[in-house]
TrEMBL record:
InterPro entries: DNA_brk_join_enz, Integrase-like_cat_sf, Integrase_catalytic. The keyword Transmembrane does not apply. GO terms for molecular function: DNA binding. Keywords: DNA recombination. Pfam families: Phage_integrase. Residues 93-132 are annotated as: Disordered. GO terms for biological process: DNA integration; DNA recombination. This is Tyr recombinase domain-containing protein. Residues 1-83 form the Tyr recombinase domain. It comes from the Bacteria. The keyword Transcription regulation does not apply.
């Protein structure tokens, strides 16, 4: 909401026209005043601000509205979320697992059981033996 110095409201059409005039005068590309709201929300989410805060900032009635509106716009937010999730997944330490001494194979800890475990490594060893 925009107001005059005395606190009375400005007509939205006047604010829009003034914004467009000023933007044109300073050489900005054509942009609607309302687009600034979307831009602010998009930048906030891209910066990692949580959805609840952005939703409150926009005065949406629910986080679902904010999420539905902005997460589809931001593939980098989804990418960032995937990276954060991947960062907390425990990683195994590489080691030789019950292989003959001198074997060129390395297995990840936990990969020594289950169907086919170690088969690719055994095949790799055989290739190594047949290639001098």
């Amino acid at each position: 909401m925009f107001t005059k110095e005395d606190g009375s409201g400005l007509h939205p059409a006047w604010v829009t026209e003034e914004f467009e005039r000023i933007a044109f005068e300073i050489g900005l590309p054509p942009i609607r005043l309302h687009d600034l709201r979307h831009g602010a929300a998009t930048l906030a989410l891209a910066a990692g601000v949580d959805m609840k805060t952005v939703s409150a900032m926009l005065r949406h009635s629910s986080q679902a509205i904010t999420s539905d509106t902005y997460t589809s716009v931001l593939p980098e937010v989804a990418h960032s979320a995937a990276e954060k999730i991947a960062a907390i997944v425990p990683r195994s330490v590489s080691r030789t697992a019950g292989l003959p001494t001198g074997s060129p194979c390395r297995l990840l800890e936990g990969d020594s059981t289950g169907p086919g475990a170690g088969q690719a490594c055994a095949a790799e060893s055989r290739r190594g033996e047949s290639n001098p």
